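Hey, can you fold this one?
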Amino acid sequence: MTSRAQVRRLLSLVPYLREHDGVAMTEVAAAFGISVKTLREDLNVLWMCGMPGLTPGDLIDIDMDAVDGEGVIHLSNADYLTRPLRLSADEALALVLALRTLRGIADPGKRDAVDRALKKLEAAAGDVPTTDQATVAVTAGRDDIQTRVNDGLQRGKRLDLTYDVASRAETTRRMVDPLRVFVLEGYGYLEAWCYSANALRTFRLDRIAAVEVTSVDVAPHDVQLKDLSTGWWEALKDAPLVTLELQPWAAWVGEYYPTEAVSVRPGGGLIVSLHVTDPAWLRSLLLRLQGGARVLSPDGAGNSAAEAAQEALDQYAVLLGALAR
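Sure. Predicted structure:
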């Protein structure tokens, strides 16, 4: 517990106790989400606070005998703190934006609850301007998709996904155990254990073409979900680093994808280093660039793309040979 958090709690605690004289310690602790021990420590601090002068008549008065004997709180001599703290502009705006973001991935049946919370928050913020300062745009799945995904997540049921894989321009079907739904950089995601990959995978909600909630309970998985509070970049920092030499017409890769390092080559080409979590994505990128990129390191990182290109050429040769006959 930080001193800042305690001070903020105390400033809300005093008006609460003034409105609920004789309230039980357990009830107050539950209302503030703290333990009875922490509440007792807070009261010890409050007992020594008051107006300038610090004489007995200036300090907040708490009946500590009632606290320790009956487990109830009687607080007095704090009329100057009868009103709870109001939200600052930054606090109100942060909460409004968080609720709007939540609405973007919420079950459609629960959006009314989010809207009601937003109205209450905006009313509590008073004259603080919040609604017009910023907007939230979340790209998520269709309503029926989000309903099923949230249903499987809440009930702990395995999902049967049909998913559009943008990096490979294909649609796959896979069974997954849903772990969480979140919003990052304007997109809604489902993070789940994928049985096809036998690993943790993240699926963009707007790329889920279809989903069915199965009757199979999700299995326990020994995985640690990544901290995404700082964005994808921090989450990717432990992924293997691949260095590419890009021709000038392929230099867009250095601007489109997050990179660790970029250096300019004579003639407008680039050398970029970027983190790669999925070898299939790298293979797809190299094939799409059609010779516009060369893997500098690590050794062998581009072999699968070269093999796929050679296999395609061989098949074209067979096809053309058959047509020539």
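The longest helix spans residues 303-324. Let me know if you want another pass with a different chain boundary.
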